[in-house]
Amino acid sequence: MLTTRHGVRPLGAADLDAFLALARQDPVVNVFVDYRATTTNLEPRWLGGEMWGRFDNGELTSACHVGANLVPVQADPDDAAAFAERALARGRTVSTIVGPQEAVRSFWNGVAASWGRPREARWEQPHLEIAALPKVAADPRVRKSTRADLNELYPACVAMYTEEVGISPEYGGGAELYRARVTQLVSRGWSFARYDDGQLVFKAEVACATPYAAQIQGVYVPPAHRGRGLATAGMAAVVNIVRRELAPVVSLYVNDWNTPARAVYEKVGFRETARFATVMF
Fold first, then answer.
1. Which of 32, 144, 163, 275 is 20 to 30 A from residue 125's alpha carbon, by CA?
2. Which CATH number fits the domain that encloses residue 239?
């Protein structure tokens, strides 16, 4: 297939090996796109979008996931600018731009004038990793969620999402889809929580996983239970379970201004390895 201007074209199943080799140059930072590629075979109907690749002398040198989330992959500022030019030709179809800070900033600079004002831009998001035993004791009461927990778990997921993103996942009729996503994570064994007398007091989920890394999302303690160390001990438990059952490295990214969350992750033993940025519409 011929490449387009600046060497950018959509990738397909024939490009899977080359794409995975690219993503695995940094397998923890790129865990989301690695997971998406391996579970969809880069087929657009399963991706719910496209994966673009940029080539130099026939070699894949960078990529960009374009679905609900737009995610640059091993992209320097020039790569990101080339992806932005391609994106301008089709208009904005994504709800979020997220990934390594420098690439996101370069991409955004290329599309900002046409894509309109974002709902929010978060430019300083430390990307954290842990590849060892936690530095604190794990909460023995944290366990995998089951379908029997959904009546308690689902409202907590909605509350966490609303607090973190600033809009409910149920907004605009999204409740059915979001409940299906929560149920899917439970079914995979990717949802973890602690319950006291049937009441959820801590939760977290795995968003995506490969043999190299697993990314955590949705860490939440209801307001009435904060200040008791539940998040610290709970995250230690999640790290232990995930490293034992899914992947050797556990990662996440957090807003720079979220001092309580950053303190929790530091106590557990996470360390910053990169900076992310997120632009939300």
1. 144
2. 3.40.630.30
Would you call 205 helix, strand, or coil by DSSP?
strand
Between CA 125 and CA 128 the distance in angstroms is: 9
- Percent of the chain scoring above 90 in pLDDT: 93
pLDDT (tens digit per residue) in 41-59: 999 899 999 999 999 999 9
pTM assigned to the model: 0.92
Give yes or no: residues 52 and 153 share one domain: no
Burial class of residue 65 (count of CB atoms within 10 Å of its CB; 0-12, 13-18, 19+): buried
Amino acid at 89: A
- pLDDT confidence of 114, banded at 50, 70, 90? very high
State the pLDDT at residue 91. 86
Q: Binning pLDDT at 50, 70 and 90, where does residue 2 land?
A: very low
Expressed as residue numbers, the domain containing 52 is 5-116
Total structural domains within the chain:
2
Structure tokens at 229: 């160390």
- The C-alpha atoms of residue 105 and residue 96 are separated, in whole angstroms, by 13
* Same domain (yes/no): 62, 172: no
Q: How far apart are the first and last CA of the chain?
A: 33
Give CA–CA dist 174/132, Å, rounded. 38
Give the closest residue to 209 by CA, choosing from 44, 45, 30, 73.
Answer: 30
Q: What is the C-alpha separation between 78 and 92, in angstroms, rounded? A: 20
Q: Are residues 179 and 216 in the same domain?
A: yes
- The C-alpha angle 273, 276, 278, rounded to 5 degrees, equals 165
